[in-house]
Structure formats: C-alpha cells, structure tokens
Write a structure and sequence with these properties.
single chain, alpha/beta, Rossmann fold, 16% strand
Amino acid sequence: MKTLENKTAIVTGGGSGIGRAIAKLYAFEGAKLVISDVDEKGGNETVAQIKAKGGEAFFVKADTSKPDDSKNTVDHAVKTFGGLHIAVNNAGIGGPIKYLGEYPIDGWDKVISINLSGVFYGLRYQIQAMLSSGGGSIVNIASILGRVGTRGSPAYVAAKHGVIGLTEAAALEYADQKIRVNSIGPGYIVTPLLTNSLDDATMKALAGLHPMGRLGSSEEVAELALWLNSDKASFVTGAYYNVDGGYLAQ
C-alpha cells in the first residue's frame, strides 16, 4: 500500500517549484491531488504531469490572499473526492528587496497577504473539512527566514516568522481532534522564485551561505513534506523542521 493511498490532498502554489515537487510525490504515493495556483498554465502542467504517471489531480485557479479562493479550493476538493485529509500551504512570493526604512507599503501589504494571511485562510477552511473527514495533517511551508533574519526582506521575514507561530497555535488547538499541523523551513532552493530574479553570481553567493556548499532542490523539500503528512509522523505536531544544508546550524 502506498504511503498516502486513499487520501485527498491540497497543495497551494502547486504550479511550479516546491509545490509542484510535493504534488507529484504525493500523487506517486497514492494521494488524490487538488492543485491551486494563480498561474493557470503552470497548475495545469502539474496536473498533466501527474496524470501522465497515472495519478489523479485537478487544478483550481486561486489567489491565496483571497479567503473566498481558499474556501473554493477546499470546497472543490470535498465535492470531487469526498473529503480532505492533507494540505500543504506552500504558495508564497519573495517581495521587494529594500531596507525597512525604504520598504514600499504596497509591497509589505502584498507579501503579508499572500505569505501569512494566505496560510491563515488556508488553515481556516482546511481544518473545517478535515474535522468532517475524521482528522488530517497540514504542512505549512515557512523558511529558514522564519527563524532568523536577513537584510532587505523585512516583509518576507516577518511573514515567515508568523507562519511558524500560526502553525504552533493551530497544532495546539487541534491536537486532540486528530489534526496535526507542522511547518518546514527550506533553505535557498533552486526554484523559479530564485532563478527568475537572480543572476548566476548571486546564485553562487547564496550557495556559499550553506555549509554543504550548494542550494537545495524542490524534491528534497518534498521528501520531508511527505513524511510529515504521512502516518509515519503520527506523533509529530507543532514542529518546525529546517531542510537547509546546515544554514541554521551556523
């Protein structure tokens, strides 16, 4: 029997990068997938890749910063597959690179609305559906910058710190109702979020920040997300796991 057989899972931001890698791995392990993203093309590509391997998946276009979109995604999952057992709140953006005293107000609002409020909206409706399904497990994708700071990204750092705190609060509230909630802190991962905005020299410099001397892959993050959302992690809730090549050990 596959690890996630007979489970329904939602993955937000599943149109590329870490979200796509998680969705594909979950499908390989037997889950029925609901992929949400603002990127319709990318989301449908993920679904096509899953179906090409014999998996079940469908796409819902959704902006996680809009609570109605989060509710709609959950409603589609329940209507299509009969319930919800697993969720990964992964959608996020990097935002402007500016020091706090010069940080654009609209940039702050956008990062917080997607990276933090978006996770809250997801949890808000996913938990309701999981209670009706008899329990479940949720992974929120935070960051190494949810535990430490960095220069030039105050909104991102604040949002990811908030995701970890929100994870802990949710875990405590629903621990006795068969819902587990955990968070993951990836280091710098080779995803479109980085490759589309940074040059080779900057990518090399980022790799050098990690004791392993390289950037991580989306698949390495997906493996941890699989374990946390499986029954193998049945006594794990309210936890934060970094997958960062040793970054936070420094």
